[in-house]
Write a structure and sequence with these properties.
The structure holds two protein chains of two kinds. Chain A is α+β, with helices and mostly antiparallel strands. In chain A, about 35% of the residues lie in helices and about 25% in strands. In chain A, helix 11 runs antiparallel to helix 12. Chain B is of the alpha+beta class. Helix content of chain B is about 35%, strand content about 15%. Chain B is built from five helices and five strands, in the order ββαβββαααα. In chain B, helix 2 packs across helix 5 and helix 4 packs across helix 5. Chain B starts with a strand and ends with a helix. Chain B: Pfam families: Fer2, Fer2_2. Chain B: This is (2Fe-2S)-binding protein.
């Protein structure tokens, strides 16, 4: 459980970090909070020759809201995302999901950018990024680029990031003040990786009918994804108990989980249905317009 | 490419030097190079919480931190807690039978010394959420929860 040898670099600016990563190419690995990469290094699942430490890049640790967009620096720690008054106002779902990542000491070190780049299929931050239509801002020596979260995640622990690039920030459209939200996950042990995680946002029109509904699921495919909800199924509906049943059954039909040694596909499907049901109930409860 | 280098660490308010390879875990440097064996090592991949120390007053896994990263940061280990008399948290763990073999205890103490500073009046649910990051195979956790809540009450009373 000791990592293989590596050379250690501690750049003081983003520019220097990108320069080092460009110079070492595939032989380098950036380290942020180290809460996922650390175990991989210790177990020698990753053996970079150069470790480029991003922890001194304080300019990548920020929370700001500009023109309806909540932007968070990639080095913002989960604990800050979970507890920042600004995040809780602008995107309470993001804050609530961040509060469930790992354990208290893990959240003190782990970062938003690190979680997105690690791209565990059941992880919280990728799921919320996909649900919220967040945009990932990426830096490289050639300049900056921006990509939609749903295009960023490509497969299990695989993202659209070239050698030498790092995520610098993430832009979440501010959650509409009248939108309700729900976040539900199931794991066998508190703080473990989720078997399935579900996030939902729901907005009601003044007459109490459903104006907008978004649902995303993690842990049932190689990447988290939004369920394409046919407007005819939900739009204009009154959110009754049977409507909630209909939506959760609809979502469960649209996923194709695979069997594995620990979790049968059918169990994952039933779990998804139950979590969607509870997540939408939560979302309904906290919409500002009273449900009919 | 990864020769030993001399690093300077601030541990429990004291400046210490060690000659280490960059790959050396903070937990190993604390125990083997600096002789601070109060920090225990369990799983070495961040799961068990036994090696929890404070980095700049916040709890962190020493086994997921490379010592070389810690130059310029303040490390606090269990050796700095209750140097003369037990801290209120340690006293409560003692009184409530919050430990048995004691292997996991340093990690639990470090986690909650930090948590109770941030959250002086936690609910039982919050204590249980935080305690989920530390494995204990003896106690069944119940007495640890009781002890943390008791320590929180004692510390609130002691406040001016």
């Amino acid at each position: 459980m000791k990592p293989a040898s590596f050379d250690y670099h501690r750049p003081q600016t983003v520019e220097d970090a990108l320069g080092l990563l460009a110079r070492f190419g595939e032989t380098a690995k950036p380290i942020a909070g180290g809460q996922s990469l650390g175990p991989m290094l210790n177990m020698r699942l990753a053996r970079p020759r150069h470790l480029v430490d991003l922890n001194d890049l304080v300019e990548l640790d920020f929370v700001r809201v500009v023109d309806g967009v909540l932007e968070l620096g990639a080095m913002t720690r989960h604990q800050r995302v979970a507890t920042s008054a600004e995040v809780r106002r602008a995107h309470p779902l993001l804050a609530a999901a961040a509060a469930t990542i790992g354990h208290y000491p893990i959240r003190q070190r782990g970062t938003l950018g690190g979680s997105l780049v690690h791209a565990d299929p059941a992880a919280q931050m990728p799921l919320i990024a996909v649900l919220a239509n967040a945009r990932i801002v990426i830096g490289g020596v050639g300049g900056m680029r921006e990509i939609a979260a749903c295009d960023f995640f490509q497969s299990v622990m695989t993202v659209d990031l070239r050698a030498g690039e790092i995520v610098t920030s993430v832009r979440f459209p501010v959650l509409a003040p009248n939108a309700g939200w729900g976040f539900r996950l199931f794991s066998r042990r508190h703080g473990d990786f989720a078997m399935v995680a579900v996030a939902a946002t729901l907005a009601l029109a003044d007459d109490g009918r459903v104006a907008d509904l978004k649902v995303a699921v993690g842990g049932v495919a190689s990447v988290p994804f939004r369920i394409d909800l046919d407007a005819s199924v939900f739009a204009g509906a009154t959110p009754t108990a049977s409507w909630i049943e209909e939506i959760s059954a609809h979502v469960a039909e649209r996923i194709a989980p695979e069997d594995n040694a620990l979790v049968p596909a059918e169990y994952r499907r039933e779990l998804t249905e139950a979590l969607v049901r509870d997540g939408i109930k939560d979302a309904l409860r906290n919409t500002q317009v009273e449900a009919a | 490419m990864s020769d030993k280098r001399t690093i300077t660490l601030t541990v429990n308010g004291t400046t210490r030097e060690a000659d280490v390879e960059p790959r050396r875990l903070l937990s190993d440097v604390l125990r083997e190079d600096l002789g601070l064996t109060g920090t225990h090592v369990g799983c070495e991949h961040g799961v068990c919480g036994a090696c929890t120390v404070l980095i700049d007053d916040k709890p962190a896994r020493a086994c997921l931190t490379y010592a070389v990263q810690m130059e310029g940061h303040e490390i606090t280990t269990i050796e700095a807690v209750g140097e003369e008399t037990l801290s209120p948290l340690q006293q409560a763990l003692h009184e409530e039978h919050g430990l048995q073999c004691g292997f996991c205890t340093p990690g639990i103490v470090m986690t909650f010394e930090a948590f109770l500073r941030e959250m002086p009046d936690p609910s039982e649910a919050q204590v249980r959420d935080v305690l989920s990051g530390n494995l204990c195979r003896c106690t069944g956790y119940q007495n640890i929860v009781v002890a943390v809540l008791k320590a929180a009450a004692v510390m609130r009373e002691k406040r001016p």
